[in-house]
């Protein structure tokens, strides 16, 4: 686009003397030679070698950088480093100095980091251009003879920096710029006669590219960094040329002699010569030569500001704005208007397209853009450009309420534009149910219009993603006006539920629905069969049953694609039959067919399924009138009940059999659950005597009470009972002793049956004979017990007071003749002492009699233990579900048995005691008696500890108290009996009355009370006695 065709706007305000004349006052006696800006201050250098640092509040800091003059300066944007080139002595000897403006000495001079000479080779030449990389590792200096020197390394250190001459003498260097990409670093070079770029990424491997053979003047080149692709711009008299590292870029036709180029944000500032009136002189003055300021918006191709200022010296950009310094050292500020002011200016001129471009370039928020689009659309509507308006309104989708646009195009003549907007609304996913309805109605109207194509069909056949709409709503709308298109839409978008619903409700095509479901995958087929199975079975029972057989065994879709996917994983997919049983509630025959097929296929069904099959078997059996068919279903039912692999609920099966009066099933289930009483009652209710007798014969040995129940039913419920049945019942009752004769006679007497004494004559005669025989046996047994009791009494008297002669001559253990020392027991067993010590387990028991005595003692202890379980018995009896089993268990333990025990003075061991052997004399009294006794026990290996009399009496009391509840007490006169110790060696019993009391260590001594060492005497201090409690 030519420069003259660009639109011109006034987006900047030019403000004069923003520094209030401070710069002009500073340079009264000197001239500004260099300018730069960055790091929050403006840098000015004069002809005397001084540098001025101006802050934002126009505070000035001055220091002398060179003795002669300063020629070049570059202030880094984001670093306090200032790089200058100047002369310290007469002649041509340029010096590079690097200043740290963040560090000042006491004289206000910044720290100088580096001083080095700027000489290309060995020739003294004036420097013409300076450029420093923001990374502080690269610096380039151009000279008037065309030489170019590149410095690598830290620019603050002379020693670490290496210089290289990239270009020898040629045309004067007028511009330098560094450009950094993700992988490379480029150095652009502009001279009077050429434009060159160097790839300086790698040291000593710099590559030179010639971009153009035409150059530019000094300060007429700049790097545009804020564009999408950074361009090196060169200003010539005819145009602005752009260059990249790859070659030449776009060109902008801007006429005029260029003085200076500068880049600010996204604007290109051009200073060129002109003959227009200057802003710095009054209007009545004649026209003089001045400089034209032109600010271009390269991206949007606008001229955003133009003005004329006399003799511009420099353009400075800092603090988010840019300033202009003229030859008279006056400072101008170009203040950019805010975005809202720009847009308001454009809205007044109806330049909405320009406003949109500017808003987008300055990252305007989306809500603001939508407002511009809306105003632009309204403007186009007013002009009658409805297509353009719709295009603008489409850009507002998502922010602007659709009803705002729809109301403008409800007229029938705008139906096509409204359709365009609604389609865009669906594509972007912001359509509602009403929008979809409106769009489909628009399609319908367009189809009815002459010359219009079938838009509705095109809408249906449109690819997915072209329009984002709610398919359900579309189907619902099409269903009302065009059912065929609704069906097509549901099938295209795989809306299976809608398709099946439309086929069933609108077309009644049930078989087609089953075919469609059979093409679906397993999950969908299962889902829709559960949902619509009831209707399908009612209207197509055979086809539905066949499909359910497939679905519940090994389902495979008719769709080949689904089958290939399933086959690759070898999946066996089948549904749970229990989910479909309720569908057959009104069709038992189909349900039986369905479940029988599953059982034949080896499917393992759940208990409720088997229960349902049994119930429907009986339902069909009960409704049949054909006898053969009834027998067939009866056999099926019994076979089902008798199959051990089928897990059905027996209680529920019994209820169902009762409901349908299926006797064979009832009797089988009773027998399976061992409910023999219920079997007998069933036969009694049928009044079938033969069945009653057969039941008692078959199960009577397992449950004898069946005979008793049969007797009661025989005498109560029938007027003329079967005599054979009665006789057999009485015979079994008598044999098994199920009832006493008295109860039998009472039962026969209280019953309503016509039974005479003659009918039971044989039973009564047999019972009387058995009672006589039993009485005779009991009397004989009583006489024998009496005789045995008398013999035992005589033996007890003999043991108490009689003389016992021990005549044993052989040892009961080794059977050798007895030799002293010997041990004799009252049970007539005798032992050698060494044999007794070898065989005995207890010191006071005969080894030969010990096993029998031990068994008797354990029996007595067990019975005594059971007698103490009264509270436990009652507690368990209250908590038990079956109290009879608890009572039977305790009865078996002998808790309820009453028996007689004749107590003796030694209840624990009712056996004769052995005679004590008198060991060699041991002094068991006096000092050290206890120690001597323990020592002798260790030597002999035997410890004889006699049972104390008090412990024996305590045990007698305990046994007697624990047995009082169940033992019939027989009083007996006891005489205190001393133990009879027969000895074979000479010895003396210390407890006999004729024993010398003085030899008894336990006898009380009269002098004992006066023994001061006796801790048990009465007058002993009880507090000092450790054994006193």
UniProtKB/TrEMBL annotation:
One of its GO terms (cellular component) is HOPS complex. It is a peripheral membrane protein. CHCR repeats lie at residues 393-545. Residues 811-850 form the RING-type domain. GO terms for molecular function: protein-macromolecule adaptor activity; zinc ion binding. PROSITE patterns: CHCR, ZF_RING_2. It is found in: Late endosome membrane; Lysosome. Residues 987-1029 are annotated as: Disordered. Keywords: Lysosome, Membrane, Metal-binding, Protein transport, Transport, Zinc, Zinc-finger. Signal peptide: none annotated. InterPro entries: CHCR_PEP5_VPS11, Clathrin_H-chain/VPS_repeat, PEP5_VPS11_N, TPR-like_helical_dom_sf, VPS11, VPS11_C, WD40/YVTN_repeat-like_dom_sf, WD40_repeat_dom_sf. GO terms for biological process: endosome organization; intracellular protein transport; organelle fusion; vacuole organization; vesicle docking involved in exocytosis. The keyword Protein transport applies. Pfam families: PEP5_VPS11_N (PF23341), TPR_PEP5_VPS11 (PF23356), VPS11_C (PF12451). Belongs to the VPS11 family. This is Vacuolar protein sorting-associated protein 11 homolog. It comes from Zophobas morio.
